[in-house]
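can u do me a favor
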């Protein structure tokens, strides 16, 4: 997706998190390990041999390995260095969510109205109100949500709406883009807007199929079809074996997708997963169609209400007419961590933030001025890390997914988080949410052989020049370890093995270690 671009400049900000705690050594602990009679020198030497290869001379490694049973740092290389954690940052958001929300909490999406129902007619607007469910309309979570809501409304005897249908995503205060998200990412599925009224994970798939012969236009198909977005331009079919030149562009604030270039005849169809430009409008369109299928006539038009727009009259004394619920938060977190789904974690951070905001309303030290839902979520994370004892300089997060290049954390802070998680009543639940080496999620095709297979539960992270892995491993000697491995600023040389192979080699060393504490 190198040629996909959408130029929107997101708002950015940095929040410092945590309070003071002792810092681990800033370089390899081979010297410390040499005092142990349990094989630590060999382990340290083997890890050092991987990280000191010439191809990493200009890169930055940070590694921390902590024994959970004793709390001792088994290995540390630049463990106090601030590095980009990429998607391992989702572990911070997951810990906050399980500390804030009940695991069985289900997020509602509602039909509301301040107007009465008289003789089968709703005498006023109908509000489709999203409260942050990121799974609405997915195959495993309310795929028929719109018909479900329309059916509930019909069951109340409503057959006409004398007013507008208002799709409202203003429950989240702030921009729909995470702070620090880069403009060049915003057309891709991984940077889909984090909307309180989300549908189909705010993604639409565009499949490009070349024509039967050169000179014919390529076919462009959207899935799901109900989420098709307006197109401008076309792709030509070029000669067989020619170089593909597929270009997709969406201008700031515009839903129109520009398509141009060519695709070679005889090549198989290829699919691009794109961010929906306006998820709330898409949800409104789907509900409008469902109302018609259930015999409910909409006399007004479809309107969309985005933050910072307000319509207090809609919410004043509105009654709930219908409701669908998300899967439990535990299921949402599992999908978010197993698949590294950014929308799930960013929405949950904002829901956590709204809980924190509500709790702070009557506090004498409550902040003044505007804070968005994301900022409130980061304040709540700050408080959690303060209770853990993680230094404020050790975790600097801008949003809840790790997508921002401004997100920074030290490997030591990450393993201290994992250490604290292991003491919580929901520790086993969170561990089960993580990808398992060689088994599922983003680790399904990694660490499939060797001692790490099925013995590692960890969160992956990957961006251009950034590779990371953090989680838990049980060693061959029976030790339970928490580890964080961050590699930043690495440009892979042509012909060189992928850096994840060396990260996995380090994890295999940990899994195969028979030493004690």
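np, heres the sequence
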């Amino acid at each position: 997706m190198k040629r996909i671009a959408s130029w929107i400049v997101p708002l950015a900000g940095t929040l410092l998190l945590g309070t003071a705690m002792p810092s681990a050594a800033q370089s390899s602990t081979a010297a410390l390990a040499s005092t142990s009679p349990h094989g630590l020198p060999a382990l340290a030497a083997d890890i050092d041999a991987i990280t000191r290869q010439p191809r990493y001379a200009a890169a930055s490694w940070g590694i921390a390995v902590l024994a959970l049973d004793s709390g001792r740092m088994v290995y540390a290389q630049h463990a106090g260095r601030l590095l980009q954690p990429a998607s391992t940052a989702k572990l911070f958001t997951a810990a906050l969510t399980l500390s804030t929300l009940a695991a069985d909490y289900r997020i509602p999406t509602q039909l509301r109205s301040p107007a009465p129902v008289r003789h089968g007619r709703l005498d006023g607007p109908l509000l489709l109100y999203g409260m942050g469910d990121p799974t609405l309309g997915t195959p495993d979570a309310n795929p028929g949500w719109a018909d479900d809501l329309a059916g509930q409304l019909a069951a109340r005897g409503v057959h006409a709406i004398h007013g507008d249908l208002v799709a409202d995503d203003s429950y989240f205060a702030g921009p729909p883009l995470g702070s620090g998200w880069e403009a060049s990412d915003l057309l891709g599925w991984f940077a889909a807007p984090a909307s309180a009224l989300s549908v189909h994970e705010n993604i639409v798939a565009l499949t490009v199929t070349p024509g039967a012969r050169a000179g014919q236009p390529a076919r462009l198909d959207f899935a799901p079809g109900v989420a098709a977005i307006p197109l401008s331009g076309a792709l030509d079919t070029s000669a067989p074996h020619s170089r593909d030149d597929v270009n997709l562009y969406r201008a700031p604030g515009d839903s129109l997708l520009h398509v141009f270039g060519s695709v070679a005849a005889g090549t198989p169809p290829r699919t691009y997963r794109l961010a929906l430009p306006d998820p709330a409008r898409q949800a409104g369109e789907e509900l409008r169609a469902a109302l018609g299928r259930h015999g409910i006539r909409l006399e007004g038009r479809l309107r969309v209400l985005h933050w910072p727009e307000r319509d207090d009259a809609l919410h004043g004394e509105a009654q709930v007419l219908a409701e669908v619920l998300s899967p439990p938060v535990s299921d949402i977190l599992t999908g978010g961590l197993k698949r590294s789904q950014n929308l799930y974690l960013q929405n949950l951070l904002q829901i956590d933030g709204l809980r924190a905001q509500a709790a702070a309303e009557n506090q004498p030290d409550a902040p003044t001025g505007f804070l968005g839902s994301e900022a409130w979520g980061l304040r709540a994370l700050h408080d959690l890390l303060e209770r853990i004892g993680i230094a404020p300089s050790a975790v600097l997060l801008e949003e809840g997914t790790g997508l921002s290049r401004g997100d920074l954390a030290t490997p030591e802070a990450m393993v201290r988080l994992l250490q604290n998680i292991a003491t919580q009543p929901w520790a086993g639940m969170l561990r089960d949410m993580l990808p398992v080496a060689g088994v599922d999620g983003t680790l399904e095709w990694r660490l499939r052989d060797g001692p790490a297979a099925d013995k590692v539960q960890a969160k992956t992270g990957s961006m251009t020049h950034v590779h990371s892995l953090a989680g838990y491993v049980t060693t061959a000697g029976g030790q339970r370890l928490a580890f964080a491995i961050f590699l930043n600023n690495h440009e892979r040389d042509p012909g060189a093995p992928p850096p994840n192979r060396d990260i996995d080699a380090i994890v295999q060393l940990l899994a195969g270690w028979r030493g004690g504490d």
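Residues 28-83+414-492+500-517 form a domain with the Beta-lactamase fold (CATH 3.40.710.10). hope that helps!!
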